[in-house]
Amino acid sequence: MKRLVILGGGESGAGAAKLGKKLGYEVFLSDKGKLADKYKRMLEELGVEYEEGQHSEERIFTADLVVKSPGIPDKLPMIVGLREKGIEVISEIEFAGRHTDAKMYCITGSNGKTTTTLLLYHILEKAGYDVGLAGNVGNSLAAQVADDLHRVYVVELSSFQLDGMFQFRCDTAILTNITPDHLDRYDYKFENYANSKFRILNNMRKEDLFIYGYDCEVVRERVERGDVVPEAVGFTYTDCVGVNAYMDGNTVVARWGNREFRIAKQEITIQGRHNVYNAMAAILAALKAGVSDEDLRKGLTTFPQVEHRLETVDVVNGVTYINDSKATNVDSAWYALDSMHAPVVWIAGGTDKGNDYSALFDLVKEKVKLLICMGVDNKKLIESFSPICEVVDTHSLDETMEVAYRRAEKGDVVLLSPCCASFDLFKNYENRGEMFKEKVKSLK
């Protein structure tokens, strides 16, 4: 019996364990941290041996195949050692992909990938497709392949997941954009990070479809080099009719094959320039999937707000509170600020990932009346923005909300768009967003 070792016991790890058992592997799961109770119960029900709080290398190195969590860096000595011994180390998505022939609609990019993923899934589901949601959102792809198999999957892929994918092939791939992010995992070299994102094209065929953000210079230049195998179609916010999706005044136009689809941008439930991009990408993918105009329109006009992404929480004393906790990099924060049409009390801060904040200076000058820096160490933010707007230094959510409540006036927006990772004060961006929403609800 072949031995499968799984490193990391979160959603992807537990899902890989389920699929491994179904395929007849001897499965062992190891997590350096503490396993959540629901995953412990799942592993026990499956009869999977596991450990937490350590990695026992003598047991791990007996593997025939290793599936590792995307959060574990490739440079970790244990991962390097496994590969040196010729033991294959792959991602959960790669593992799942080897055991299904379902169609894969995959989305990556520095920004917009979650919204695009959820929107495309919503459109396909409303159109009656047998579709599953997986990757960074939804349930583990491996778990679904094991016991809830669909004919189509919409999969959000991070660069970390793509790094562990080798044979996997997308039928339709979307690359929204590439801006500096996670550079600490890529030797602080933007090119390495960009290369990782372009791995989504691996193994694609001529008959497949690659949808890309034409307005992102980094992506467009690579596509224009001409070494992309599948059909490449771009989307733009301009009126450039040579691109497959573009703006005609206030109308979104998308063309693929012999079809053209039009919708007024104000009819789409999610607003802002960044969401026009997301909608264009999803529309092009849906056209490839054969979704009718009627079903496309129904999906675009019924899609709910995405949690933690420009999510309106409440209006308190005439002040609108917006949760954009998922904005963990400069580009996401740029789109958030760009979509604001009222004076902004901006809450930013957290773990800096090598950010260059200069791209935000003009927008901050135009829109922000007060920046509240929330984090353990806000020195870089304070130095960057003090010459541009008033800055207040805080070190907890309670302190931040107290300042925001006191300083925001009727008609203002309090925008949590942190521009940084959450790990200094919170478990993750979801935890940060949830706590922010709780505090807003308690203001009434």
UniProtKB/TrEMBL annotation:
Domain called Mur ligase central: residue spans: 107-286
EC number(s) from the headed UniProt entry: 6.3.2.9
Compartment list: Cytoplasm
Domain spans labelled Mur ligase C-terminal: 308-419
BP-aspect Gene Ontology terms: cell division; cell wall organization; peptidoglycan biosynthetic process; regulation of cell shape
Keyword Cytoplasm found: yes
One Gene Ontology term of the molecular function aspect: UDP-N-acetylmuramoylalanine-D-glutamate ligase activity
Tree of life domain: Bacteria
Binding site for ATP: 109-115
Catalytic reactions of this protein: UDP-N-acetyl-alpha-D-muramoyl-L-alanine + D-glutamate + ATP = UDP-N-acetyl-alpha-D-muramoyl-L-alanyl-D-glutamate + ADP + phosphate + H(+)
Biochemical pathway: Cell wall biogenesis; peptidoglycan biosynthesis
Main location: cytoplasm
Keyword S-adenosyl-L-methionine listed: no
Role description: Cell wall formation. Catalyzes the addition of glutamate to the nucleotide precursor UDP-N-acetylmuramoyl-L-alanine (UMA).
Family: Belongs to the MurCDEF family.
Name this protein carries in UniProt: UDP-N-acetylmuramoylalanine--D-glutamate ligase
Gene: murD
